[in-house]
Amino acid sequence: MRVVLLGTAASGGFPRWNCACVRCDAARDGKLPARGPECAAVTGNSRDWWLLNASPDIRAQLTAAPALWPGPRHTPVRGVLLTDAEPDHVSGLAVLRDAARLKTYAAPPVLAALAPARAGLDRHAPWEWADSLTEGGFVLAGGLVVTAHPVPGKPPAYVPGRSSDRRWVTVYRIEDLATGRVLVYAPRVSAWSGLLEDLVADADGVVLDGTHFAADETGDTGRHLPVSGPTGSLTALARHPGVRRIYTHLADSNPLLDPTTTARAQISEAGAEVLPDGTEFAL
Ligand SMILES: [Zn+2]
């Protein structure tokens, strides 16, 4: 299985267009590596690629990833697996609108929230829309078998009213049928759980929500599991030293964006990684 990290920043990318914080300024000055909104791609056979989320920067992200360039006749991108309905995860679908027969998987409330956008996209080129939570999972072209697992999370702000649906956010387990290798893609996680513990224990690699290094980094607490602290993800990941552990979805408040920080040294020492956009790795 090959994986490309197309984007590794939280909502808005890094630098954010309307932010003049120290780190965003440093990224604008070229002193820290810029990052696009979180998004990745995966393949089991190097011919059929599947996007994990579709960021608003997807055009630039695909242009920067030679493995995903179109061949003489068509694109190797077969479809998209959405983890949720957040604008930074779905707005890239509009960029992909002229590709025929793309197949997009998402949980039922996400598909419902996207109904108006889907109607518009289907008028450009008919797509297939599928329930990611279908019983027993699903098989992707290229020999990947996928199961989606709901984790606690709220609907995006553009969805009106209150929702009692508990399937707004999902984590994907992707297994290469030929090799048995497993990737867990979990860019949005609000708490560690028995489910995550089991998924990671059984995986060869995990790409995990690293939005905030510390719980009190911003006023926005509770939406994302912090990296550090006694209940942080780094402590949980330490129980799985044999698994490749990569953080993504980094907010501009996160010191992990700066390779010279003690935060970065701390995760390296623990065996976890922060990688630049465009990084490809094999599992
Ligand atoms: Zn900033």
Automatic annotation (TrEMBL):
Pfam families reported for this sequence: Lactamase_B_2 (PF12706)
Keyword Lipid biosynthesis found: no
Presence of the UniProt keyword Membrane in the record: no
Keywords for this protein: Hydrolase, PQQ biosynthesis, Transport
Record pathway: Cofactor biosynthesis; pyrroloquinoline quinone biosynthesis
TM regions (residue ranges): none
GO biological process: pyrroloquinoline quinone biosynthetic process
InterPro entries per UniProt: Metallo-B-lactamas, PQQ_synth_PqqB, RibonucZ/Hydroxyglut_hydro
Metallo-beta-lactamase domain segment(s): 49-249
Molecular function terms from GO: hydrolase activity
Function statement: May be involved in the transport of PQQ or its precursor to the periplasm.
Protein family membership: Belongs to the PqqB family.
Name of the protein in question: Coenzyme PQQ synthesis protein B
Species assigned in the record: Streptomyces chartreusis
Gene name as annotated: pqqB
